[in-house]
Amino acid sequence: MAGRAPPRGSPAPCGEAAVRAAALRLLARREHSRAELRRKLCRGGRPEALVERVLEALAREGLQDDRRFAEAYLRSRRERGYGPLRVAVELRQRGVDRELVERVLAEEGEAEGPWAAVLERARRQRFGAARPRDEAERARQARFLQQRGFPLALVLEALGEAAPE
Q: In angstroms, rounded to a whole number, what is the distance separating the alpha carbons of residues 136 and 142?
């Protein structure tokens, strides 16, 4: 049973090695922000100071990095058709620093290609290749794209309207 997580509901082991092992199990599944790891590791009554020490060590060793998490998260959400505004909000909710979010969106976002291409792919996947037939359909598509996190100006441009001044 070595290397397995304790059953749900049982107290979490509190030694440094146990906390590190729990963190590595989480990181083996996917990248996590430091805040996500802290929240998950502090569950079960683990001392916050111990969790912080382990997180510092993982960061020093390059095993946990908020920038790498933000880049991977951005790529994943972009592939699923989400826009920069929504990705930024979600990264902030996961505890990534605002400046890092802005930097990653600026550097990685455009390096992967323009957001307009992501928007058009999301629009076509949901509504098909045909352009909106009337004002009601245009409004429906605009709402969908804005909820996906695309800026209004980009949405209006994609739907063939001029952005309001």
A: 10
Which residue do the tokens 């979600």 mark? 90
107 and 122 belong to one structural domain? no
123 & 146 share domain: yes
24 shares a domain with 49 = yes
Across the chain, mean pLDDT equals 89
The predicted-structure confidence for 46-78, as pLDDT tens digits, reads as follows 999 999 999 999 999 999 999 999 999 999 999
User: Is residue 3 pLDDT above 50, yes or no?
Assistant: yes
Run of H or E residues at 137? helix 135-147
Residues 73 and 39 both lie in one domain: no
